[in-house]
């Protein structure tokens, strides 16, 4: 089930955020994520977050800043079970337009977003990581 984030979810959400980023972005030094941990911790408290929970366990979450998707994160052992699609469809019902950035090398994520009817608008250089990222958008019909 999808529900609104509660402050007591923070530690679990941060654990998922860190593990998923390190595993999904092997082309980026893991210290980038470790060094940004405290920044993300603060940012999460002001973001609009929805978690996916099953049997009182958080298996994934989606974070937004207005209609910008900061990210979708699903625990490794819960991936490819439709949780990401459930989360993205949940917010598609809340927003007419959504945008996000995804690293060009993260083919799995790009394919996921394309399946969810996001389109690539342009390429951009992430100056923090020196990696190319796509800016993608979804518009409700």
Description of the structure:
With 141 residues, this protein is of the alpha+beta class. The chain has one domain (2-139): Gcn5-related N-acetyltransferase (GNAT) (Aminopeptidase). The chain has 5 helices and 7 strands, in the order E-H-H-H-E-E-E-H-E-H-E-E. It has a 7-stranded mixed beta sheet with strand order 1-2-3-4-5-7-6, with helices on both faces. Strand 3 (57-65) and strand 4 form a beta hairpin. The longest helix has 15 residues, at 10-24. It is globular. The mean pLDDT is 95.
Summarize the structure.
This protein is α+β, with helices and mostly antiparallel strands and 141 residues long. The protein has helices spanning 10-24, 30-35, 37-46, 83-92, 107-115, and strands at residues 2-4, 48-54, 57-65, 68-74, 97-103, 119-126, 131-139. Strands 1-2-3-4-5-7-6 form a 7-stranded mixed β-sheet, with helices on both faces.
Strands across the major sheet, in which order? 1-2-3-4-5-7-6
CATH class: Alpha Beta
Q: Name the structural class.
A: alpha+beta
Into how many domains do the coordinates divide? Answer: 1
> Which percent band covers the strand fraction?
35-45%
**Mean of the pLDDT scores?**
95
Radius of gyration, taken over Cα atoms and rounded to an integer in Å: 14 Å
- Gross morphology: globular
Number-wise, the strands total 7
What's the SSE blueprint?
Blueprint (H helix, E strand, L loop, with lengths): L1 E3 L5 H15 L5 H6 L1 H10 L1 E7 L2 E9 L2 E7 L8 H10 L4 E7 L3 H9 L3 E8 L4 E9 L2
Parallel strand pairs: 4-5
Antiparallel strand pairs: 1-2, 2-3, 3-4, 5-7, 6-7
């Amino acid at each position: 089930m999808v529900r609104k984030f509660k402050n007591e979810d923070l530690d679990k959400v941060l654990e998922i955020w860190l593990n998923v980023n390190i595993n999904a972005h092997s082309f980026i030094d893991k210290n980038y994520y470790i060094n940004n941990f405290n920044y993300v911790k603060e940012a999460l408290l002001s973001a609009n977050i929805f978690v996916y929970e099953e049997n009182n366990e958080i298996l994934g979450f989606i974070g937004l800043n207005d209609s910008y998707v900061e990210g979708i994160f699903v625990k490794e052992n819960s991936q490819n079970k439709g949780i990401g699609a459930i989360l993205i469809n949940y917010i598609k019902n809340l927003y007419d337009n959504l945008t996000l950035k995804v690293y060009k090398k993260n083919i799995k994520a790009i394919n996921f977003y394309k399946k969810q009817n996001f389109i690539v608008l342009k390429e951009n250089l992430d100056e923090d990581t020196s990696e190319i990222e796509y800016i993608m958008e979804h518009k409700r019909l």
